[in-house]
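Human: Not sure, check this?
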Amino acid sequence: MSLLRKLGVGSEKIIAQNNRVRGFVTSSETCRMFKVNKSAFRTHPLDGAVFPHYIRFTYSVDGTEFTGERFFDAFSRSPQAGEVIDVCVDGGSPLKYAIQVQ
């Protein structure tokens, strides 16, 4: 799986096909190695710090189960483990996916 797909780049074409299946988030991790400071003035190292998230999920197409991964930036809502998400899959290859979180 390419890094660009994990970042969500190029997902507009897959979402436009509107082939949606249900997916389940299996893990959600905070990436503490990438700290984003929201405040210009800090009183301690984590003052105003937010962190991006990385999720892993599973989805099923025609009885075959697939796994996927996705990064979320520090300012977006990230799904938690056990949450149900909509996964958009490419009509030609179900290995190509995109997710949209409301």
Remarks:
- Helices lie at 3-7, 12-17.
